Amino acid sequence: MRNLFFIFLTITTFTFAQNTQNVNLSNPNAAIYTHLYFLQSDSYFPEKAAKTIKGLPEDLAIKKAKRIKQVLDGKGLFVDFSKIPTNPNYNDTIGYVKSYKYVLFPDRMPLISVERTDKSWYYSEETIQNIDALYNQVYPWYVRKIQDFVPEVGHKKLFGIELWQAIMSLILIAIAFVIYFICRWISYFILRKIQYRITHSKNAEINSVLKKLAHPISLLVGIWFVETIFPSLRFGLHVNKWVFLILNIAATVFWIYVFLKLVKVVMRIYSEFTERTHGRLDDQLVPILHKFLTGIVLFLGFLKLLTLLGIDTTAVIAGVSIGGLALALASQDTVKNLIGTVMIFLDKPFHIGDWVEADSISGEVEEVGFRSTRIRGVDTSIYQIPNSKLAEITINNKGLRLFRRYNTELGIRYDTPPELIEAFVKGIREIVIVHPETRSESYNVEFTGFGDSALLIMINVYFKSLQWGVEQSSKHKFHIAIVKLAKALGVEFAFPFNNYDRAIS
Question: How does residue 334 score in pLDDT terms, banded at 50, 70 and 90?
């Protein structure tokens, strides 16, 4: 009996202590706790909760205090007191005008905050001025009117949910689906109009991507509709918390999908633009930019998901930064190559398909990657040159020549008569003029001197085509025409003296 009396006395004392808990406004944590604690069902003293609002009559302050809690509950914003500062002189670091201010939910509800006034913490003037508007946003008037017309039977509970809440939830989901289908059609129509206005062309591949892009955009509109109306169903903080968490995660995933598809559309449009340009280096930039932008979208989306799950992204970013710095120090060559890649795309010393000479390497540029550039040599082997080195050495870009110069010497026998030499030189000049791949206005064909074994005729011509294969074909035709001319005139090409004597003997 004595033990039962002791237990009853302890419970009574504890309850009495709870009911008589003092109002504490000494710091942000204490002020917010005071407000929410005295509006709980088992510690309901709204006049004490209203002490967190300064400068208003008690009845109006009580109304404002209740509405602040209702807005937080309606949006499923659960207050984690372990994260609220207990420093009486807390100095805001978010960047608001007043220094001594703490915003409870900067991302989702930036208008609700507490601030220090006369060494005590109260809900800010901004919060008091905006709370009625916020309340009307969370609980629209027409939904409140519907609740007033709910009959008594509608308040009967099934699995802890009132009947009217279940019916309204089903209606809300049905309306959201209707909005989704309507917005999908409208979104696709608008996206096609924007795409055609930018590119002035119709592309089946882009249209396919735009169709896929219209789906998540429409879903986002549907989620926005549910987020707007759902708090009016008054499921309570705990239900709203999980519902809004799921909706926000879904919205974030859809936004990631939207931006990934948007990157694909932009890259496809840019690819069409680069196909119309002369150089092919821009074409090589398309996949690199695609990968880079995709990585940024996924990284930012990942940070947003961590934020929704209550993880401090500042520590994650700091860890990534420190890890990135350590990795950069450990792989300086990779960083140099990346910088070299940027410089190559900015300076554009060559294009894909250009024939270049870099130090002892000569070949055709095939690919420019993040780390290195691939050059295919004459023997079809591949040279992999680090971009850091390629950005520093001298590059002779044969692909940027206006014409391909060809210079050679022909040696004819010493016993060739002068008249025949003149006729041969004149005939070669005519070959240059009529050849379709040589410049007829710029060439040199002259009898230039006396060699050890032959009379020397210098030929200097310019081929029009910049492609190496076309140049070789043009040379072949040019050489055949000269050989036919020499045979027709009876001009013989000379051998070196030792070879000539050996041929006679």
Answer: low
